[in-house]
Design a protein that fits this description.
25% helix, Alpha-Beta Plaits
């Protein structure tokens, strides 16, 4: 199984104040990108919450998604389009021979996605599941 859960706050830049016109154009580009993906399952959604745009992504696939529909690709694209954005994406790939028992945490900061070890949910066995 390939499980993923993430969010990102969309920001045009790392400045406290976004240019409203540029942000509107940016949000339109991101929404077009999301629409073009035709996300096959799970959740991929862009919404405005209390004046801030937020992206939500979550799903549980039988296998690792293809490049176009890969959650990390989405996060990376958001970072390219909106380099002030920030967020977290948790991923567990049970087919990964080395890391099948761990979640990986991917952070989006200033347009760059980096991978980190997960201290909260890993190792999945025995923290979340019993050994069979």
């Amino acid at each position: 199984m390939y499980e993923y859960h993430g969010w990102a706050t969309i920001r045009e830049s790392s400045s406290i104040e976004d240019d409203e016109l540029n942000l509107a154009i940016l949000i339109k580009k991101i929404q077009e990108y999301i629409n073009e993906l035709q996300w096959p399952n799970g959740v991929l959604d862009l919404r405005i919450v209390n004046g801030e745009y937020q992206l939500w992504i979550a799903g549980l696939n039988n296998h690792k998604p293809t490049d176009k529909h890969h959650p990390l690709k989405v996060f990376s694209t958001i970072g390219t389009l909106a380099p002030g954005s920030y967020g977290i994406l948790y991923v567990r790939d049970s087919d990964d021979l080395e890391y099948y028992n761990e979640f990986k945490v991917h952070s989006l900061v200033r347009g760059t996605v980096t991978e980190h070890a997960d201290p909260f949910l890993s190792p999945v066995i025995p923290k979340l599941e019993d050994k069979t």
